Automatic annotation (TrEMBL):
Native organism: Branchiostoma lanceolatum
Protein name: Large ribosomal subunit protein uL18m
Alphabetic keyword roster: Mitochondrion, Ribonucleoprotein, Ribosomal protein
Gene3D superfamilies: Ribosomal protein S11
Family annotation (PANTHER family): 39S RIBOSOMAL PROTEIN L18, MITOCHONDRIAL, LARGE RIBOSOMAL SUBUNIT PROTEIN UL18M
Length: 205
């Protein structure tokens, strides 16, 4: 039998023995009181305030309002989104502008995450990569089609053509569909008083 108070008498002096005190904790099971059946009468009340969390839904369906009456102006204002391409001596910038003036997506070779992968920030390769990045950002923002109008002389440039091709390859459509004015045919209603409907009901019975 070893004496614990004298560490030299232990066979292994480098080992220490500690007094361990065990404490028992008892957990009391509690139960939440039953408040009965919840009241669901207020669930049928319609809130007077409506918040549209997807304001571009009508535009994607082709039902959104477009500006009209600007036939003599250029570029045309009858669109939902317009793609702008700006090239300077140092950088290439492209952005998507809503008809209300807000910029919803943009990409530029001035951005460091893009610029660090480019050999030049203003050559043809930079324009193509800006088109790829902008197309990806448009898809993430829920934009799939837009108008892209430029001067015919600039459209013949290889820089603009490579940018256009990159946008198309990225899933963009550089033209918008026509607005749907008569959309009642999209929602077909059933006339229960019609003779054809009553005849079908009798045949089923």
């Amino acid at each position: 039998m070893y004496v614990l108070n004298d560490m030299h008498m232990l066979p292994y002096p480098h080992l220490f023995v500690y007094n361990v005190q065990v404490t028992t904790v008892r957990l009391l099971a509690t139960q939440t009181p039953d408040h009965g059946v919840p009241d669901t009468e207020d669930n049928d009340i319609i809130s007077p305030d409506f918040l549209n969390r997807n304001p571009r839904n009508l535009e994607r369906m082709g039902l959104g309002r477009k500006e009209r009456g600007w036939k003599t102006t250029w570029p045309r204002k009858e669109c939902w989104h317009r793609c702008h391409f700006v090239k300077s001596n140092r950088y290439v910038t492209a952005y998507i502008q809503h008809h209300n003036g807000h910029i919803v997506a943009s990409a530029s070779s001035f951005e460091w995450p893009i610029r660090k992968h480019l050999y030049s920030t203003s050559d043809v390769s930079a324009s193509e990569n800006i088109g790829r990045v902008l197309a990806q950002r448009c898809l993430e923002a829920g934009i799939y089609f837009m108008e892209f109008d430029m001067v015919p002389e600039k459209l013949e440039s290889e820089t603009v053509q490579r940018f256009q091709q990159a946008m198309v390859d990225g899933g963009m459509m550089l033209s918008e569909p026509r607005r749907i004015y008569e959309y009642k045919h999209l929602f077909k209603s059933t006339d229960y008083d019609a003779e054809d409907y009553n005849t079908k009901e009798e045949e089923i019975k």
